[in-house]
Amino acid sequence: SFSGARPMSYAQMPNDLEAFWMPFTANRQFKAAPRLLVSAKDMHYVAADGHKVMDGAAGLWCVNAGHGRQKIVEAVQKQVAELDFAPTFQMGHPKAFEAASRVAALLPGDLDRIFFANSGSEAVDTALKIALAYHRARGEGSRTRLIGRERGYHGVGFGGISVGGIVNNRKFFGGLLTGVDHLPHTHNLEKNAYTKGEPEWGAHLADDLERIVALHDASTIAAVIVEPVAGSTGVLVPPKGYLKRLREICDKYGILLIFDEVITGFGRLGSAFASEHFGVLPDMVTMAKGLTNGVIPMAAVGVREPVFQAFMQGPENAMELFHGYTYSGHPIASAAAIATLDLYREEGLFERAASLAPYFEEAAHALKGLPHVIDIRNIGLVAGIELESRPGKVGARAYESLVKCFEQGLLIRTTGDIIALSPPLIIEKNQIDELFGILSKVLRDID
Ligand code: PLP
């Protein structure tokens, strides 16, 4: 356990910090010098010592409409007083149906059937299970193989870490699902450094799916899952034509294509979903985060009509999908989702993201030439700034910038030595200037 004198700030904290085993955090390092956020409104957090922190990360890519939005607050307050919980197993309540209809209406094409979960990880596991059960329902039960991609992040369930392409999951947890294979990632600084938007080079990397099909045979492959833009492993924008190519190869071999839109959903790229932005219709879409503006946990899988119909062929009194969560379509989450979707529409926030994107792009690329910066990439209201790693200390430089940015009033997200910026879609141009101003000062200040 961490030992030695407790730092001064520790005594000022409202609670003992020991009990909470923090997720994806260096617990001892954090607790020695904690960064506590105590309130939030619109574009800003307030830290425990009272200093304002601009939210350059939409919390964790989720607070797309900004913090403390009255419409969502009121919807949640009303719902918790009216109907706090109702089961959705063999029972129902109106808000879950309304939320599902609203999500279906927002999704492109015939992605019209909505299964609710509570986190992106659960949505991913749900989609993978639907893919497996879909092929069984159609008499193709040999299709069990799941294909992910290197540097993919699909949450932390066993399904998600197996199709994901993050080496630490293999290092720390070992035996993942078998019957999984991976496409190569599309990140290549030599070819694509400092690209604005979609890189020209790399569509051919989708053809690797042909190699995987040739190796395993299509009759063993259930689904391919990718993030249209990989977020958590460092903002990897798909090369032009790449996603279309994946779609074509999946169609050729009867493989389901799943887009994990946990980050890209709800306006991040300037349209409701990345599938719309790129003009590629997957068979399933996973979403979470922005679905409720981060206010109440909720996630969903959008499923295309023919996939859903494959389940509807058996006896009417049989459960078509043996799957669900106690909190699937939770009333309060449903109310939060409805209010959030209203807010996105009323304020035109997806269109706003699209119209701010060029300004955001210029501001991000203006960091070119600053110390440590080796790449800048962007799409919609998301940017990745890749720093050169200190020899033998991957992540140290970006972590130090996170700490310094926080001190100077900016919340950023880092992964390895990549800084990811994804502000709420309500950001103003002068706030974009302020955000990149703080970051460039910090990059000049650190070693
Ligand atoms: N999928 C993607 C693409 C994500 O970015 C994330 C989280 O960042 C997840 C899944 C997991 O979501 P959660 O943390 O809600 O389980």
TrEMBL record:
UniProt entry tagged with the keyword Transferase: yes
Superkingdom classification of source: Bacteria
Cofactor: pyridoxal 5'-phosphate
Molecular function in Gene Ontology: adenosylmethionine-8-amino-7-oxononanoate transaminase activity; pyridoxal phosphate binding
GO process annotations (BP): biotin biosynthetic process
Keywords, sorted A to Z: Aminotransferase, Pyridoxal phosphate, Transferase
Pfam families cross-referenced by the UniProt entry: Aminotran_3
Family: Belongs to the class-III pyridoxal-phosphate-dependent aminotransferase family.
Name of the protein this chain belongs to: Aspartate aminotransferase family protein
Organism of derivation: Aliidongia dinghuensis
